[in-house]
Amino acid sequence: MVEETAVPSHLLSVLTVGGQQALAEAIGDLVRAWFTKHGWSDSLEQLSFTTYHDFHRLPPAEWPVAAIMLNGDNHVEDRLCAEGEDGFWDWFDTLGLQFNTRSAGVHHISIPDDAPAGAGLHTRLATLQAFEWHAHLVAPDYTAIYRTVFEHFGRHPEHFGALQWRGFEQLCASVFTAQGYTTELGKGRNDGGVDIRLTSHPVYGQQVTVVQVKQQRKKIELNLVQGILGAAHGEGADRSLFVTSSSFLPGAERWAHAQGSTIPLELADRQKVAEWCRDIPPSRDWIRQQATSWNLGSAKVVVASIGVRMINSAWAAVVAETPLAARLFPLGAHHVRMPTDPMRGTVTPVMPRVLPEADCSFTARRDGDRYSGDDGRFYDVWDGQPRYFDDAD
Q1: Of all helices (H) and strands (E), which one includes residue 312?
Q2: 3-class DSSP state for residue 102?
Q3: How far is CA 198 from CA 139, 154, 254, 281, in A?
Q4: Could you give the percent of the chain with pLDDT greater than 90?
Q5: How far apart are alpha carbons 72 and 103 in whole angstroms?
Q6: pLDDT for 319-348, tens place per residue?
Q7: Count of CB atoms within 10 A of residue 212's CB?
């Protein structure tokens, strides 16, 4: 446990090394430790911590927000709203942090700039948030460039053989980044058998995956496949992956499927890499071009729950999707209110007669019938039945 007087320096080190997500997790560790110490451990499963950008998808706040704490437990909410409860607020002040409840279940944790110990952390966080937001704005332009490359190799996997070994590694790293991984491309030589490290993913979480990339024409032999699994054990990785521009010998495939290692091993040949290229989420220009063929009449409708005390639903239509991603249009809602209590009733989606502008749509990462939208909501396929709503606070 970090001494309270050393918390600002500790958090600055975490931010410098790991970025905003690591900072949010470190603050979460502090809060969970306090909850445990004061007998609130029964509510720990209700807590989660994320960054301002990942939650709001908005420009940085004027006052930099270091973390957002989310909870869906009214018991936690009542405790936090009881000023002075077990000294929670005073404890936060001693850490050089500020805690503000913005709405039910959503709490902003900020870094003031008037505390000498926290001034460096405040400045560093504000600078980093501004940089990452501007990088987020220009990312679609780069995605449009890469999209043409991905589309080409998705249609012509036989052209992987025309790439130099380093070019194939760089292409694979770009594919992983476009899939949502935090990607670290190795130096190319004397890398211990690991060409790429994948350190986080919106679906797989903070797992470490080590990747061996082999660009060659002949099929991959067993000893090469065994090598990446050995490297994964040496690094304590969670997953391992061997990617090639060719294919695998039957013996290598049989061994990979039968080996009983605690670290999962996946093989990806050139057809699999081509499939990844085809499934990468599209650029904005591609979206506008494809929108001419979208049809709301045959679209799948998905729904997300909103609120804790006040309950409602958000609706969207899936107009295009791949196994990994989807494009969604937000939909309006029709409320049928109870005669005896107009604050409650049922709600159903409203399909517009005219398709909205393509820019109104948003991207969602897909995991089967679960859609993680860029609007911060988790959508499931609607079963066609009216949903209950409650506007009473």
Answers
A1: strand 312-321
A2: strand
A3: 19, 22, 25, 19
A4: 26
A5: 11
A6: 877 666 778 899 999 999 999 999 999 999
A7: 23
